[in-house]
Amino acid sequence: MRFSSCWSNERIFGFKDLDGALEGFYSVIVDGLTNLPNEETKIELLNETMNLQYKREMNISSVKMKISYNNGEEGGTTVWLSKKIIEKLLGKL
Length: 93
Prior knowledge:
Elements: E1 2-4, E2 10-12, H1 21-35, E3 41-44, E4 48-57, E5 60-69, E6 74-77, E7 81-82, H2 83-89
Antiparallel strand pairs: 1-2, 3-4, 4-5, 5-6, 5-7
C-alpha cells in the first residue's frame, strides 16, 4: 500500500498476515464502508496506531487511513480509497 502527500515523497508499507490478522483488518474496513461510522475507527498495533475515516460521496463509500507512531510522529495518510481499491490492495479481487 502506498502513502503519498501532495507532490512529494511516496511512502510504502506492508502488512504481515500473522494469525489471519489481514482478514480481520479487511473485515473492519468493509464493515466501516458499509455502516459509515461517524467516529474514526482506531486500530492499535504494536508500534503504531491506524485511524480509519469513512465518507460517502456520489453514492461511493471510501476510507482514509492515517498512521501515527507511538512516539507521537505522524506516519502518513492515504488518499480516499474505495472498496474496489481496498480489495485490489489486499488481494481480494
